[in-house]
Amino acid sequence: MKRVLAGSALCVGLLLAAGPSFADLKPGEPDLAYGAYQRGYYTTAFQEAMKRVKADPRDAAAMTLIGELFAEGVGAPYNLDEAMKWDRLAAEQGDSNAQYALANAYLNGNGEPKDVAAARTWFEKAAALGHAGAWFNLGVFALEGNGVAANFALAAQDFRRSADLGFPDAAYALALLYREGKGVPKDAAQATQWLKRAAEEGYLAAEVEYGIALFNGDGAPADEPGGAKWLLRAANRTNAIAQDRVARMYFAGRGLKQDRVQGAKWAILAASAGLRDSWLDNETKKLSPDERTKVEQAIKSYLGR
Fold first, then answer.
1. Interhelix angle for 168-180 vs 188-200, to 10°?
2. Which residues in 142-263 belong to E strands, given as ranges?
3. How far is the C-alpha of 32 from the C-alpha of 40, rounded, in Å?
4. Which of 30, 125, 216, 229 is most open to solvent, judged by the fewest CB atoms within 10 Å of its CB?
5. Entry pTM
C-alpha cells in the first residue's frame, strides 16, 4: 500500500503503509488480485478484486485492494470518495489495512474530514489486530500529547510493539528514546541495537546513525570499517551526511583505504546536496590536476553519464 502515514518531529521521513494481507485465502489458493497488484498489472488487480467481492461480499482484503487502487488512481480512476467507501466497508469487516488507511484519511484530512479523535480510534482498532504502522502512529500520538503532556513511556511501549512487528521507523524512534533517556532509561547500547535493527531493515536515517555509532564506538565496540560500510550504503542512497562522512574517511584513510579521488567525489556530491564542509573544501583544493580529472570521471561514472 502506498498511502503516506503521518510522521513526527522525532521520526523524519516518508512512512509507507503495509501491503494488503489477503489472509483469508485458503492454503495454496493463488491470489491473482494481489499478485497482479504487486507486479504492476493494476487493471487486472482491480478486475480480480471486483470478482472476489461479487463472489463474497464480505471479502475485506479484496475491498481494501479496491480502495487502494482508487486512492492511487491505477487500475481504476483516481477517486478518493470511492477509495474511502471501500476502505470503510473493509474496515468494518475487520481488515487492519483498511482501518489503517481510514485512520490516515482522518488524520490528514485526505478523503475524510480531518478528525484526530477518529484517526486514533481507527489506529487503535488496527493496532489491536497487530498492524505495525498503527502501533507506530499511536506512539507518535503519545509523543505529541495532542493537548495533554507527552507520554514518553507509552510512546516507547507502542514503538516497541511496532518494531517487534517489523516496522523500521519504530525501531529508529525507539533508538532515539534510548539515546535521550525519554520514557526508557538512557542506554547507549540499547540505542545502538535499535539503530542496527532499523538499519538492517533499510531505514536510511538509521543506516547513517548506526554507521556513525559504530565508527565512534558509541554503544558498541568501535569498528571503523563496519561504520564505513553502513555510511557507504547510505551515501549511495544520496544521503548528504553520509556522503560527507565517507569523504572524510577516504581523505583520512580511516575505515576506508585512503583515496583522495573518492574523497573528493563524495565531498562534491555532499556539497551539491547543500552540505558544505570547510575541511573537505581545503583537502579538495590540494588535488593535483590529474586527480581533478579523475574526480570528474568518477562523478560522471557514479551519475551514470
1. 160
2. none
3. 12
4. 30
5. 0.84
